[in-house]
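[09:14] KT: can someone run the structure on this one? pasting the chain below
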Amino acid sequence: MKRARQSYWEDELYSQQCDVLIVGAGLTGLSTALFSKRMNPKARVVVLERGVYPIGASTRNAGFACIGSITEHLADLELDSENQLKKRIKARFNGLHLLRTTLGDQNIDYDDCGGWEIFTDHTEFEKASHQVERFNNWMEQLIGEKEVYQVGKFEGYPAIFNWVEGALHPGKMMKTLIELNVKEGVELRWQTAVKHIDVEKGSVIGENGEQWFSETLVLATNAFTNHLSQKKEIKPGRGFVFVTSPLKELSWKGTFHYDKGYVYFRNLGEDRLLIGGGRNVDYDAETTDEFGINEAIKKYLINYVNDVLTLPKGWKIDREWSGIMGFTASKSPSLEKIGAKTWQVAGLSGMGVALGMALGKSAAERL
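[09:31] RB: done, structure tokens below
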């Protein structure tokens, strides 16, 4: 069927000129839009999204509100300086506070349950537990909270508890954020895939031939940024998640991390387990922006559930999916101007829930 040309009335109704044009309706993109509109209510702010909802990581993550486990911090110190890591930890904590106060805990099913890091290797546990005092000193300095990390046990395993972490519902998080954008007057264009951008002119051409012109263009496409931008510093990383059918008994209640944060699991309600991660089992294959299930990683997580979590026999996978994250080399997000009229906001590096809204607000302030 031929595509119908716009009528005179449609040109008036859907003028393609805007003040701020954002590509990507995930947490970062919609946060950029929300705060841009609040800072300048008269501005025309438009968000383009290729799907019927954001499909990268914002609605496909596991719903962890975390700032990082001790083994993850130690691993990050091998990639970046202590000063930069401290900045990221503080940004995660403040970002979660902004997310919760902006959306409301009741609207996102926030559960202030804390987070556990589980160990099966005694040597790794000893190494991490010796760092508790160091990182508690960091936390008191960075976020003003004492004894954030505490050594203990969970289900017989040595563990380290972090009481400032929690869990939330990613679907309700995004639903609430979309509603706030609509209320503020932000225009959302769903199922509008982008074919080409001009970073100097701030213009966009859609796959169906639509043309958009803006005073400021923002790329908030995270893992998919390389499809549109010539700057190739954002690497995609696929994450696998599955949820079990209802279980007769589930003792793992709360949020949990294992092996530098590569494995993460939590309860959903009273009788389901959600588990994801294992990307380090097959790094090369998971450095992709293609959705899909890696059978080696799926097998690894199933074995972990059986051998470590020891769920009741006969448990089954009810649903499985993958999400695509965007990583920078240092794990610090990218907020930079890449053209005369274009900004890039991407590279949340697996901490999108904690960093996405704050990064969007920072982008709006710079615009």
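[09:33] KT: thanks! The mean pLDDT is 94.
[09:34] RB: yep, looked fine to me
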